């Protein structure tokens, strides 16, 4: 390889990085069967850039033809390897509902969230329940108001993202998802939760921020593996005492509700590290809150009645960073 060729390849690193960045974005929403045609198109576009660059470096036609052929071959090889990598990585990943339903046993990940700007899906067919090997289902930023009961058939599902839809209820079959670890329901219109939510024995993350919840079912206390619970931006006035059974809870976000009191059982959350209560109407805090030995941060901003109790609260939690205003 000539020194000029080596020099060019060295200087073309930025071109390669740029190309691969675009390449990944192009392939993100592409099925495996389209890889080859898109790779060929990208190869042509990239080699066109190389040709223009080489023309500036050396106008000799014979030199250009030879060098261009070499670079084109190299880039084609790189693209082929990259295609193989993506094919292996993306196996079982689908971005199209129709295609997924045509290969029900192959689907591991179904991503129907927005690549850019959002989708317009309003209903989910009952055939979704046929995806027996599905592990991740992303339905965020659509316009779903309900879910089919067949969603409860997804026994291997580990992550379910339903954020930013228009859900008003959840089917009781949601409780059949025994392997579910993450459930994201942020930004919906849920006023209640089915008691079957307590059957999600492996749930670790539950995001309910920005709904219209006024109460929580006592079954919430059955979520023994729950570590992260976000209830911010709802309309809760009280919490069930069963919340104290969430022994593995690390983060509890209750900001922007209408809480006036907390149950004394809050003091049983021995692993809790962060408690956000800002923007409520708390009149006082139970003395049991002082039992939260692992608590690191407590946000009390926007609870006017607690300002006069500042010293008392600080004595209860001497090692905690407390934000009053």
From TrEMBL:
PROSITE patterns: LRR (PS51450). Residues 119-184, 218-308 form the Disease resistance R13L4/SHOC-2-like LRR domain. Keywords: Leucine-rich repeat, Repeat. It comes from the Bacteria. InterPro entries: Leu-rich_rpt, Leu-rich_rpt_typical-subtyp, LRR-SigEffector_domain, LRR_dom_sf, LRR_R13L4/SHOC2-like. This is Leucine rich repeat protein. It comes from Leptospira santarosai str. ZUN179.
């Amino acid at each position: 390889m000539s020194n000029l060729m080596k020099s060019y390849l060295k200087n073309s690193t930025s071109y390669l990085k740029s190309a691969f960045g675009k390449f990944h974005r192009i392939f993100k929403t592409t099925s495996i069967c389209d890889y080859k045609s898109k790779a060929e198109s990208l190869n042509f576009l990239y080699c066109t850039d190389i040709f223009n660059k080489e023309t500036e470096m050396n106008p000799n036609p014979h030199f250009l033809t030879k060098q261009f052929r070499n670079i084109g071959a190299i880039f084609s090889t790189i693209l082929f390897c990259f295609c193989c990598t993506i094919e292996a990585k993306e196996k079982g990943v689908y971005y199209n509902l129709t295609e997924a339903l045509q290969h029900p046993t192959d689907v591991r990940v179904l991503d129907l969230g927005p690549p850019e700007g959002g989708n317009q899906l309003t209903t989910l067919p009952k055939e979704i329940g046929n995806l027996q090997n599905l592990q991740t289902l992303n339905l965020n930023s659509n316009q779903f108001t309900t879910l089919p009961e067949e969603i409860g058939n997804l026994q291997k599902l580990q992550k379910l993202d339903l954020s930013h839809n228009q859900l008003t209820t959840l089917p009781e079959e949601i409780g059949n998802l025994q392997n579910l670890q993450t459930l994201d329901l942020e930004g919906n219109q849920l006023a209640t939760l089915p008691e079957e939510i307590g059957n999600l024995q492996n749930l670790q993350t539950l995001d309910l921020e920005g709904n219209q919840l006024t109460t929580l079912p006592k079954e919430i206390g059955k979520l023994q593996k729950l570590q992260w619970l976000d209830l911010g931006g709802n309309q809760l006035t009280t919490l069930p005492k069963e919340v104290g059974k969430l022994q593995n809870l690390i983060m509890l976000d209750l900001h922007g509700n209408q809480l006036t009191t907390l149950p004394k059982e809050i003091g049983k959350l021995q692993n809790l590290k962060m408690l956000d209560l800002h923007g409520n109407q708390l009149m006082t805090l139970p003395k049991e809150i002082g039992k939260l030995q692992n608590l690191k941060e407590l946000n009390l901003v926007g609870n006017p009645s607690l300002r006069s109790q500042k010293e008392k609260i600080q004595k209860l939690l001497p090692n905690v960073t407390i934000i009053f205003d």
